Amino acid sequence: MVAEKILIHNPTGLHTRPAKNLVGEAKKFESDITVIFKGKRANLKSLIKVLKLGISQNNFIELLCDGPDEQEALAHLKNFILAMEG
User: Does the reported pTM lie above 0.85?
Assistant: First the structure.
């Protein structure tokens, strides 16, 4: 398992469109991917669960990746999130 905290700079946070795009990227990987926000956990491959977290700009999330491609998943998703920064 690998994990990393990431600051969300995107002006809309992880709301509908950016969350949908991020979920699509997460689904490319075999590993289980969990996002943690303010103590709540959600499967990053589920748009509804991610949206329920209400992740907004200037907040930290933690990504946990566990599986055969966990390193690649974490690196790719981190870069994807950072590229969404407005």
Answer: yes
